[in-house]
Automatic annotation (TrEMBL):
Gene3D superfamilies: P-loop containing nucleotide triphosphate hydrolases. GO terms for cellular component: cytoplasm. It comes from Globicatella sulfidifaciens DSM 15739. Keywords: ATP-binding, Cytoplasm, Magnesium, Metal-binding, Nucleotide-binding, tRNA processing. NCBIfam families: T6A_YjeE. One of its GO terms (biological process) is tRNA threonylcarbamoyladenosine modification. Its main location: cytoplasm. It is found in: Cytoplasm. This is tRNA threonylcarbamoyladenosine biosynthesis protein TsaE.
């Protein structure tokens, strides 16, 4: 599924449309170069889910947790793990508790990722304000992710 956006506001609008269809247990991978909208997207989803405090990129802390009434929003930025260290994150604990997990720079956690997930690619265009945003389901048992995409098509 492809979306073409022309502004930060349109990125946020897309995140707002997705938020109601996210469920605990989902893992969302965010791919794209620095400044492509990954954290902006996560911030808006978090606000829509009810996170009250500021959502900042966990570039230096690697992981930030945002408790909500029935689950946690987990935001992982694996950029600093390019040289290694992914084994220092207790990734399984995040997968075994009710949470929605957003992962930036997921290629540095590849060996730890669950098979079933949603990948969102942020592809900058010639105009610096424009992006192509591509949503792809990965895995074999992906019913919840397929349902999310179907809901996104209806919007």
């Amino acid at each position: 599924m492809h979306f073409y956006i022309d502004s930060v506001e349109e990125t946020q609008a897309l995140a707002s449309k997705m938020a109601p269809w996210l469920n605990p247990g989902m893992v969302i991978l965010l791919d794209g170069p620095l400044g492509s909208g990954k954290t902006t997207f996560t911030q808006k989803v978090g606000k829509e889910l009810g996170v009250k405090r500021a959502i900042k990129s966990p570039t230096y802390t690697i992981v930030k947790e945002y408790p909500l009434p029935n689950f946690k929003l987990i935001h992982i930025d694996a950029y600093r793990l390019e040289e290694g260290g992914a084994d220092t994150i207790d990734f399984d604990s995040y997968l075994n508790e009710p949470s929605i997990i957003f992962i930036e720079w997921s290629e540095y956690l590849y060996d730890y990722l669950p098979l079933n997930r949603l990948r969102i690619k942020f592809v900058p265009q010639t105009d610096p304000n424009q992006r192509e945003i591509i949503l792809m389901v990965e895995g074999e048992s992906t019913e919840q992710y397929q349902e999310l995409l179907e809901k996104m098509e209806e919007i």
